[in-house]
Amino acid sequence: xxxxxxxxxxxxxxxxxxxxxxxxxxxxxxxxxxxxxxxxxxxxxxxxxxxxxxxxxxxxxxxxxxxxxxxxxxxxxxxxxxxxxxxxxxxxxxxxxxxxxxxxxxxxxxxxxxxxxxxxxxxxxxxxxxxxxxxxxxxxxxxxxxxxxxxxxxxxxxxxxxxxxxxxxxxxxxxxxxxxxxxxxxxxxxxxxxxxxxxxxxxxxxxxxxxxxxxxxxxxxxxxxxxxxxxxxxxxxxxxxxxxxxxxxxxxxxxxxxxxxxxxxxxxxxxxxxxxxxxxxxxxxxxxxxxxxxxxxxx
Length: 299
Known about the structure:
Blueprint: E1 12-16, H1 21-32, E2 36-41, H2 44-57, E3 64-69, H3 75-89, E4 94-97, H4 112-140, E5 143-148, H5 161-181, E6 186-193, H6 219-226, H7 233-245, E7 250-253, H8 255-266, H9 268-298
Parallel strand pairs: 1-2, 1-4, 2-3, 4-5, 5-6, 6-7
Helix pairs in contact: 1-2, 1-7, 3-4, 4-5, 8-9
């Protein structure tokens, strides 16, 4: 079967989490390909700055980009943004539900507040995007919802239980909606990046959440400990848009992430064994850090 590849030229797109990382690169590449893009982010000022930067590079008239301050946990706010895009352009072609957060560490250290934040942003934020965009696209009889999950949504990821749970939910939501949406000419894809070099790897715990009482690793330290080398967000965005243009149900990159997905389906016991070894390695690393801090405190 010949798979038809769609062009992004002249389309409209909302990209949440658009001020940095994968969202920023998706927005830049969409605008460069002629799309009219709204970069939405909880960091409104940063989104505005990034939008201006991208607009300068895409000033040949092929595409456009603007920003919007948006907390994806705000259902009404997400719907208002979708309605604004439809009012301005007459349609909404792409909804990239990309905003996400990682809070990792031993599950015993995770409070309900930590779990709720991860679920509210990673899952509820995607649901809010679907609630805003899907009815519009059903009425149009076209459109494409693109949800960002993770390889952690395809195979278990140790010491990030809340994150992995939220991303598995996004994968499940996307697959179920894809079959239903096809009845109305609407497409649904889920992006499952592996290790990508974005600011989320260095982000600490949100300041309004209770601090952990035990040491934890940053995302970058976690990747280094398990021996993963992050790819650039620009590289992943290129792979993502290629998959979206071809209407792939699941887009996985880089190749190492695809290998993990394959192994999970082929030999889940092997993936579990690797996970146990990884958990032991990280636990030893954290224990060594506690010992060093105690020695330094005793001076």
